[in-house]
Amino acid sequence: MSRQLLAMALAPLLGLFILGIGNGFLATVITLRLDAAGESPVVIGWVSSAYFIGLAMGAMLNDRLLLRIGHIRAYGSFASLVAVTVLLQGLVAEPWAWFTLRLIGGWATVGVYLVIESWLLASGDARVRGRLLALYMISLYAAGVLGQLLLGVTEAMGGQSSFMVIGLLASLSVLPMAMIPRVSPLIEKAEPLSPLRLVTLTPTGVMGSFGSGLMVAAVYSLLPLYLQRTGLPVDRIGQMMAVVVLGAMLLQYPVGRWSDRHDRQLVLILIGAFCTLISAAVLWLPLHQGVLAGLLFLLGGGVFSLYPVAVGHAADRAPAGALVRMSQGLLLINAIGSAISPPLISPVMGLLGDAGLFWAFGAVGVFLVAFFGWRRSVRPAPIPVAPFSASTPMSSAGAELAVTEEWVQGALEHEHVEDLSGAFPEVEVAEPLVGPPPQDQPHIAYYDEAPDEEAATEEAPPADEAALTDAARP
């Protein structure tokens, strides 16, 4: 990966890291404050669900603003809105107000994710997308870990300190985006990408995003419950969850680098199989805390690597002008998977016991392996190349006559082919393979990119060469 590409990715990754520190413990602060205020679990659940409802709403609507005003201004708008909603929660301590503010905050947060993902996808090609998305996930998870460490510090300060710190971090995250970039992606022509077309274009990417949402949400919501029921104290549960996130961070970049060098669909198959094997090991191996920690480390690396590889696979197949809407669609699919994961998997735990969580992980992994394998088997076969045949060297005039006679002979042998004898009076030079892209296709431009120069007009052939060519014609 070049230094220029890393420099271009620095601003969005740094902004995401700063914003993610605050978001990493905001949900915990809200839950603790509502519980301390004596609110019922139903109220706490509704306020928490407002954030995910906002995520889904934003994943359907935020592309319009991004395409209208560009990446940098869109990021500033979304991050500022996150800061405002957080600070208002410190001023108004009513559940209905927090529900509304969390709804708006979720809408703005997914806008930030959309800006970052589309920026990184537009910055690099298929050779580096896996590593760029791995850095994106590493920044997000590292910020979440630091945020949890800040929770105790800000809550010990008392008052509304936690909300103030989170709001300040959201505001500060705008600075890297506003000051660092020399260039930023600018999509000149956005192509429409309906949900049906997204599924048709990349069913593997859609299913990978959905499966990632199912498993990641289960890790965050149901894995602590499993650990608690195995008899671990609260501090040990926190350490085990930290091990999961650590595995996600440390294995992201190797998996992303591997996916850049191999078929991403094959990588997705292997990730699904890996998650299935780890789940089976948790179910059938005799476990003590050291073995469990090692298996959870590997499980975190596999589960959390699924989404970036699926997005990279989808981006390899999407037109350049559809990258923003593709990212939006995959974020929506991932949010849907996250929303239905707890109500879908928790009954399995009720039916099969606490170990039902890993039975569910294994079942999802087997399904993904089967689906990815099926999609890989039905890929369109490459267009066959015509067999090589030797030809006799001849002059340009002779080649022109030979090609024309061949077309005429083919037309006479096949009555359904119209006569082409007069359609190609002379052989023209093919269009160059370099130069500005056609006007009807999307192009990723940059703010400081010089406008494309007009193609130079073809020079007329020398007079003596033209005379020789005319003399050779019948």
TrEMBL record:
Entry GO MF terms: transmembrane transporter activity
Alphabetized InterPro entries for the sequence: MFS, MFS_dom, MFS_trans_sf, MFS_YcaD-like
Region (Disordered): 431-474
Keyword Transcription regulation: no
Transmembrane regions: 43-62, 74-93, 99-121, 133-151, 163-180, 201-225, 237-255, 267-285, 291-310, 322-345, 357-374
Domain Major facilitator superfamily (MFS) profile stretches: 8-377
Domain of life: Bacteria
Keywords, ordered alphabetically: Membrane, Transmembrane, Transmembrane helix
Pfam families per the UniProt record, alphabetical: MFS_1 (PF07690)
Coiled coil: none
Annotated Low complexity bias: 458-474
GO CC, alphabetical: plasma membrane
Keyword field contains Repeat: no
Protein name: MFS transporter
Organism per entry: Halomonas aestuarii
